[in-house]
Fold each of these.
Amino acid sequence: MRSLFAAAFALVAFVCAPANAQQQIDPPFYVVRDADSTMYLYGTVHIRPRGAEWGTPRVREAIAASQDVWTEIEISPDADARAMSLATQLGTAADDRPLSSWLSPAEKSALDAALTRMGIPPAALEGQEPWIAALTLSVVPLMQAGFDPASGVDRAVDAYAGSMGKNMRTFETIEQQLGFFDGMSAEVQREMLREAIEQAPDMAPMMMQLSNAWEQGDIATLTALIVDDTRVNYPEMYDLILVQRNNAWMPTIVNELNGAGVDFIAVGAAHLLGSDGLVAQLQARGYRVERAH
């Protein structure tokens, strides 16, 4: 469930065709240094096919060299269970506001058709709020196409770092992350649901384009397709999911750089990119940020 939500962060869920562990990739990866500290910034994807590569040798070396390894939220079986429970609590619709009440008759018919194609009973989502229903409609087609939330890059980073006994740290709590969705305005939630219904049949092909850009480290394409498009077409979501969270993380990041040692930060790739991204914010504060290949 955690990966389902992280995947739909949007913006940040890129997938790719099945691959093997020897696949050559060059994802968004940066390094920041000052006199006594080093910080690696790794742009992740939250859902991947089983067996797909999650990092380069350079990424693995950077994790090995780091004292602290950061992810967006805690990654553990206990955290997954808490996320499931909280998602059920927050995502359950009021008795007088079922999912179908958010849709026109034509949109409801399209929803029923999409669910039928997925093998899900049309009434299954009726008791859900729009944001959680939209996430389901976005992620289920990917999973049915062979993608696995358990193979997300964040989870691989966490497992690799944990096996080395690294100090695992997080920027947010599960409650905060799910709260971003639950706090969306009714207008944004309805638009999110309508687009999920419309795009469900094409979800995997759409993500292929983003996947290729991520694997190739094509920053311009990623920025245009994810960050710029969201900022222009969905300004409230852009501010809530990217700007506010990036701004909240920056004091912690700067505090780490003001200290000494080596940190490795693994967050959704969209958080690194664009004028409001972590890379641009660090550069604006006078730090030299370089691509690390």
Amino acid sequence: MRRIAFVSLAALVIAACSKESTAPVNTVDEVTDFSIGAFGTALTSVGGYDADLYQLRLFHGLPDALKLTSDQEAKIKALVDAYKASTKADRDALEAILHQARDAKKANKSDAEIKAILDQGIPIRTRLAAAEAKLKTDIDAVLTAEQRAWLASHGPKKCKLSKFLPLTDAQKAQMKAFEEAFEKANKADLEAVKAGLKDLKEAITSGKSAADVQKILDGIKPALDRLDAARATLKSQLEGVLTPEQKASGCVPLG
């Protein structure tokens, strides 16, 4: 009996040692964890990520019947410019803190030292989150009810903000390049549809016949179809910029 007890005890000790040596090490990167949502999440939650990218999504993502007017575009641009100017100091300061924390981690500084560095950024990220949320609210006020409804129905449905690793500068630049290329490649169709929709509105207002209205619609239909396809391609390109981990968070581009 004593031998059986000894063997059993030995087995338990060996198992315990085995578990201790093979247990997964805590690999949570506190710097990366802190960077998630550090610059705000209000725009990421709707598939815009930052002020510039959200502005471009609004300019290019909405269907032609709901496109922003020139006045709306000007107002949104003014809001974004003001937001960027008023938050620049905080955004730069937070970037510096994150850079300092990353350097400390590379230098194998203690968790306490790294935390002390990151803690300096807590009030900054709180201010930035509030500023971005206000920007979103201010932009919403510029939009029509129909535009807001479309955005709500075409934003990411299952965005887990706590899982979305922030876009890198390279990713942001690539997304902006795709947006700019869309506008340049589709300039003629965008202008043709804009003019056609204006004619359509005037025809309906002035009481033109159904045949006249249909003629206008038929005239712009090829351009509308091409733009629908181009917008679908653009959204696919934007999503293709995301890493598998970012896609897995569900925080995909608006559209």
Amino acid sequence: MSVQQLAGEWEVADTTLNIPHPYEDGMAEEWIESHGPGYEAKKLATFAVVLRDSEELIGAIGLRVNFSLNKGDLGYWIGKPYWNLGYATEAARSIIAFGFDDLGLNRIHACHFARNPSSGRVMEKIGMLREGTARQDTMKWGKYEDLVTYGMLREDWLEIQQSPRSL
């Protein structure tokens, strides 16, 4: 499936802050074309989430990086046919490792709409800690949304890696 088909589903767009609906022709290409310049500018690291065997696209995950503050903002989406199969957790675990081990970040945080607890479960499964809820912090489609924030520090990540029951 294509980015437009997967991200353009109403349920996917509804549960994310930055995905529009409808997802019009040309939007996917424009979004994809922004990845290279964002990576070269050391501001973005966006990756396709694909099935291991077929390399079929099922979503995307990335970090918006602020090296002056040594932190990253995690964001992801997974196409609806692939929800609740563990793909978001696996991808999130991988990008957290990339952020701490390869980019040398000190902190990674992520937010989700309070009405989307599945996203929070992904964050908890990878070891992020719930830091709080910002009430009516943002707006999606003309409606105020509460944002739940999770965070992880490099020291948390290192502790998880040393644990005999590593995530």
Amino acid sequence: MVKKRAAVTKLFVLDTNVLMHDPSSLFRFEEHDIFLPMVTLEELDNHKKGMTEVARNARQTSRNLEEIVGPTLVDLEKGSPLSIRGNTHVSGHLFLQAAAVSTELPMLAGGKADNEILSVVWDLQKKHPNRQVILVSKDINIRIKARALGIPAEDYFNDKVLEDTDLLYSGMKELPANFWETHSKALESWQEAGRMFYRITGPICTSLLINQFVYYEFEKPFHAIVRNVTGNIAVLEVIHDYTQAKHGIWGIAARNREQNFALNLLMDPEIDFVSLLGQAGTGKTLLTLAAALTQTLDKKLYSEIVMTRATVSVGEDIGFLPGTEEEKMAPWMGALEDNLDVLNKTDEEAGDWGRAATQDLIRSRIKVKSLNFMRGRTFLSKFLIIDEAQNLTPKQMKTLITRAGPGTKVVCLGNISQIDTPYLTEGSSGLTYVVDRFKGWEHNGTVTLVRGERSRLADFAAEAL
């Protein structure tokens, strides 16, 4: 039985999927108490075998539980303190189900794990009428059943980087019409290594971040990138104009403002991490491959291009695939093939033989790797492209980005409205996580591409369907 504590603290009953999604969830409830039904521990035990992310999380949760409960028998009435391993901010206690629950809920079939958890919550509510008992689960169906029975139920929100993805950092900021009037008082401008710089002073500077793009689209259009911010003083650098064909990258010219911003980030050797977000057809993969090929084959900044992505199917799985690692990954790399076809056609003067030779050279420099074999690797002077990054968890994203050795550039591409991984949402996706955590770092850049440039059919479908 759970000992009554101050009325302010709540008692959270955790479903198994919360623990298997985030093993550290045990330490995320601060002053509140946690209760684990016996069926939750049973389900953890059933999922511990294997090499999947879920199995690893189940094993880690079991290790955490053993540390909390401790080797010696504790007084179950008082619970086990959660303030272990440096989690001093956590003042709540962990309680385990110590007695069978005789409550049988109406309408629900007995023996099913979800229904047993609901019975436990129902029983706790009766035993602690003066205390809030809340079920926490990532399973929508159990939350609906709980509400039908009058049991408070919530999703697990702690893994969400942002509550509202509309607030996600876009990497760009539009300057107001009166920008030059309010910020030209102590304006300085100079040229350095063929680049134009402006030092501006004014109220807008405090809201700017390093490597954020600013644009002024009124009488004299002005596109720049923020290079330094100190209080209400900012240094802006006028960006390269890649919209003109003569400045094209591997024959590709930017078709809109956001694509121009993206190419400026991709072509800047000082920026180690780039994240490009945008719906289908905005040119994320094409721009990245064009910049990667130019810097790998022409400028020799990188030794090769490494491309990887989460292998999550949109429909039914077609089973095991034959061949080597690269051959197994081939069906997932249709986007790579399509974009290479476009890039290969840009060289119109080469002729069929020349294009075939270029294609062979390109393929020798692009390696397709599976996520499964990334742990422990170090990429030296590589251009690493992570496609469909919205399907990665924050933990997988950390594993991938920490593979980067000296001279390596990492580019994450994705569309957070197209998530196929179970339990991941727009707010908890690994892509949202890195965009939010990396903003303001001097070697990071982010752009959200807005306009589709694939075809008029694709653009209309994206809007109308």
